[in-house]
């Protein structure tokens, strides 16, 4: 798109479709832009897109399709899940509430969430279904983008299924060194590419924040070791063309630095080493930080000379719409372990020969303590 001239109408006529995530992942950034500039049009347009998507949900199942026609609004692809094509729409329904304090976004998210947990969630797995026939699976594989979902469940406060799905993903990752771009419901590779995506690390970070369980530091350590051993090249980290062969692609996407490595850094950083109190911010889907104090700013007026300190550090009562501290909700240190325990052989049961060799090798290494893991990363 030419940023000065825009997209000319003849070209616009040739574009017929967009995915749900593309249309529904603007409200955080555009609302922030409106409140910082005093121009309400940005938030208004992004909200209109969210409103329209909500109207297009299936009224019986409350599920969303994946791709719709931008001219007619009709669904082109009606398969529904939480991965590619839909993922960040659900994310922004919840995060718009957290950032802006508008109960409408929370009400919509809760309806979608109930539908996802009723139809898409199948034990620790999340399998796409038909939005209009939600009791019927639309495919027999899962894609790597759904790995963000446990992190979103942490923000929702639904910790148990977050732990379960993350554990399933972690076992798949250990089996193949990386999380394949798509894998079957019996955990075999469906699409072997791995562009070093951040979603699994993102969920690992949020689960560690929620539970304090050093198990998630160990999960992060394994990610780092896989990156160093299988993706490190002289000029950075190369995307993996196929996890089965370990061959590389000549590319390193921007999200590797902006998200994957950022979430790894945050996972292992001690709170006192961070320049910001992250509890006063929300992460966008691209891992950018937006201050929760934006909820205080009038949509139509903002004084750019306002003190930055007032802008970023509001009193605690102004964050009453944000999520509760999970350390108080789940004070038992072994809670996460007790949830993971029944799933410890989930992938091994599906692929006994391959995984048993892995666990034998892992057992020889032995577990590492929390501080050891962090010091290892700092070194």
TrEMBL record:
GO MF annotation list: calcium ion binding; mannosyl-oligosaccharide 1,2-alpha-mannosidase activity
GO cellular component: endoplasmic reticulum quality control compartment; membrane
EC number, UniProt record: 3.2.1.-
UniProt keyword Glycoprotein, yes or no: yes
InterPro entries (alphabetical): 6hp_glycosidase-like_sf, EDEM1/2/3, Glyco_hydro_47, Seven-hairpin_glycosidases
Cofactor: Ca(2+)
Binding site for Ca(2+): 285
EC category name: hydrolase
GO biological process annotation, one example: endoplasmic reticulum mannose trimming
Keywords tagged on the record: Calcium, Endoplasmic reticulum, Glycoprotein, Glycosidase, Hydrolase, Metal-binding
Localisation: Endoplasmic reticulum
Family per similarity comment: Belongs to the glycosyl hydrolase 47 family.
The protein, known as: alpha-1,2-Mannosidase
Lineage: Eukaryota, Metazoa, Ecdysozoa, Arthropoda, Chelicerata
